[in-house]
Design a protein that fits this description.
By secondary structure, this protein is of the alpha/beta class. Helices cover about 45% and strands about 15% of the residues. The chain has 2 domains: about 100 residues, Rossmann fold (3-Layer(aba) Sandwich), CATH 3.40.50.1980; about 160 residues, 3-Layer(aba) Sandwich (Rossmann fold), CATH 3.40.50. The strands form 2 sheets. Strands 3-2-1-4-5 form a 5-stranded parallel sheet, sandwiched between helices. Strands 6, 7, 8, 9 and 10 form a 5-stranded mixed sheet that branches.
């Protein structure tokens, strides 16, 4: 729900990281007056913008202090705070997308909102090109490993839908793809018995807000028989439904899967311009 502003909003408060990331990419960063403390991309946002909230926590006085004419949030967890902003007379925009199509639609919607539809089209094209490049590269993999993505450790929570899609694009088989579409994290809680039965060959750890600890995972009771390799992917690179998940998370998933099947990323036929766009020496190693 939002209020129509003829010139587009001029003072935007972004309660989640992906909306701020997209607005920067669209060249509309001057309209942002406040961001979430969890905002990571682009790094300059943390230097330039006032931090007004966490993800599920926020004080109205801090949000209202930046005098927003629009407040943007994501997911059912932020909806109560958005409703409070609405009652305070602020226009709101709520996103609740859980898949890659939703990321693209968010970019288009924000492009229309700030009258930057051309920039939005270019960004969408880049995101779609990245997905296509990884899909073609993954076709060269000799086999598809079974992948368990762990979003949280206590309780153990498997990956959300867009993460499951990224694993599939990168040539893996998400062992809990059936749970990925669940509307809430509670429905994605898994047990040791579930994981052992799935017998993953690769475990991707991305504990939201803290470092993944492979040694602790290996020491879990009942996990000793698993032969999976383990790789951490920073939560800021994959757990926010914005461009970073595709541009940073997806290549990291591909690199982990290629390593698991013993195939150098450089041999997957990725276009040089695509690799360069994601700093391939840092992501995949100098040999790429």
């Amino acid at each position: 729900m939002s209020v129509v502003l003829p010139r587009g909003p001029q003072r935007i408060a972004c309660l989640s990281t992906e909306s701020a990331e997209v607005l920067y990419r669209l060249g509309a960063e001057d309209r942002i007056v406040g961001i979430s403390g969890y905002t990571v991309h682009p790094p300059r946002a943390r230097r330039e913008k006032v931090k007004i909230c966490g993800f599920t926590s926020g004080q109205m006085d801090r949000i209202l202090a930046v005098q927003p004419d629009l407040v943007i949030g994501f997911s059912d967890l932020q909806l109560p705070l958005l409703r409070e902003c609405e009652r305070a007379g602020r226009a709101i925009l709520w996103f609740d997308h859980r898949d890659l199509v939703g990321i693209v639609e968010m970019v288009r919607e924000l492009g229309r909102l700030v009258h930057a539809t051309k920039a939005a089209r270019l960004l969408v094209a880049q995101l779609e090109s990245a997905q296509q490049a990884v899909t073609l590269a993954a076709e060269r993999l000799p086999w598809r490993p079974r992948v368990y993505f762990e979003e949280w450790d206590e309780p153990m929570i498997c990956g959300i839908h867009w993460v499951s899609e990224l694993i599939s694009l990168a040539g893996g088989t998400d062992v809990f793809s059936g749970r990925a579409r669940a509307p809430g994290a509670r429905e994605r809680i898994v047990s040791t018995e579930d994981v052992v039965a799935a017998d993953p060959q690769l475990i991707l750890g991305s504990w939201c807000g803290k470092r993944f600890a492979p040694d602790r995972v290996r020491e879990r009771i009942g996990w000793q028989g698993l032969q999976a390799s383990m790789v951490e992917i920073k939560s800021s690179d994959i757990l926010s439904p914005g461009p970073a998940a595709i541009e940073r998370g997806l290549p990291r998933v591909l690199a982990a899967i290629a390593d698991r099947v013993g195939m150098p990323v450089a041999s997957l036929g990725l276009p040089a311009e695509w690799l360069g766009a994601f700093d391939h020496q840092r992501l995949f190693g100098a040999a790429a």
